[in-house]
Amino acid sequence: MSKISKFFKGGSAASKGRGGPSPQEALARLRETEEMLSKKQEYLETRIERELAAARQHGTKNKRAALQALKRKKRYEKQLSQIDGTLSTIEFQREALENSHTNTEVLKNMGYAAQAMKKVHENMDLNKIDDLMQDITEQQDVAQEISDAISNRAAFGDEFDE
User: Fold this and answer.
1) What is the pTM of this model?
2) In this structure, which long-range contacts are made by residues 43-52, counting pairs with CB atoms below 8 Å and at least 24 apart in sequence?
3) Where do the record's region annotations for Disordered lie (predicted)?
């Protein structure tokens, strides 16, 4: 099986058993493709420079060779333009995949936190909590009354009963 058919059919053994590549595998492949296209861009840019130099070198002496160099340059520029468009598409897809992966992780963690909260709250009953809060309020009122009673000045002898 050729590399191209493996690429389009998802030929990796790791991805065949699971029904598709993981986000990390897909991101790695997209980055590899971006890297390969960037190298091809550099190659085409050097070829364009070479053809331009060849056209200048031939100039008016050999018009046919200069025209052929300019035609090749134009073809390379067209290929370069196509690669630019492809790179843009791949970058967009990679960013979308990264965002999707992030959203999936956030959602998983939120579900995990919801389960933890549910587990924490499973032993709590709202009626018991209301009763407990009323008991606490009553005891605070009693404590305040005791505190008020203790803090009032004792009038031992200031007040006489006629």
Assistant:
1) 0.56
2) 44/76, 44/79, 44/80, 44/83, 45/80, 47/72, 47/76, 48/73, 48/76, 48/77, 48/80, 51/76
3) 1-24
